[in-house]
Amino acid sequence: MKYKIIYSNKFKKQYKKIGKTNKKLLEEILYVVSVLQSGDNLPRKYRDHKLQGKLSEFYECHILSDWLLIYFKDKDCLVITLVSTGTHADLFD
């Protein structure tokens, strides 16, 4: 099953900024998005997991050790919304 990917405005801005400075990170993000879109599970190295607390409806995976992707997965509609990407400090402080 293939998911439709929706990009939040916040994610688009963050992604565009990355593209100007870090092509390798950009490639990793594109790979992760393609796996998510296909409906497959991410390899373990990305530490994909559901968040807790106020953000319990969202998922997070580690693109790099301190670079995260936060997304929402609607399994009923087969839609994944890419919410935000950045370091722990960028996203949670």
Detailed description of the structure:
This protein is an alpha+beta fold and about 90 residues long. It has a single domain (about 5-90), classed as RelE-like (YaeB-like fold, 2-Layer Sandwich), CATH 3.30.2310.20. Helices cover about 35% and strands about 30% of the residues. The protein is built from 3 helices and 5 strands, in the order βααββββα. The chain has helices spanning about 10-20, 25-40, 90, and strands spanning about 5, 50, 60-65, 65-75, 80-85. A 5-stranded mixed β-sheet has the order 1-5-4-3-2. It is globular. The protein starts with a strand and ends with a helix.
The portion of residues forming beta strands comes to 25-35%
Strand order of the largest sheet: 1-5-4-3-2
CATH topology-level name: YaeB-like fold
Globular, elongated, flat, extended or rod-shaped: what is the shape? globular
- Count of all domains: 1
Percentage of residues assigned to helices: 25-40%
Number of DSSP strand runs: 5
* Major sheet characteristics: 5 strands, mixed
Uncertain residue segments:
none
Which quaternary structure do these chains form?
single chain
CATH C-level: Alpha Beta
Structural class: alpha+beta
Which short descriptors sum up this protein?
globular; alpha+beta; YaeB-like fold; 93 residues; five-stranded mixed sheet; 37% helix
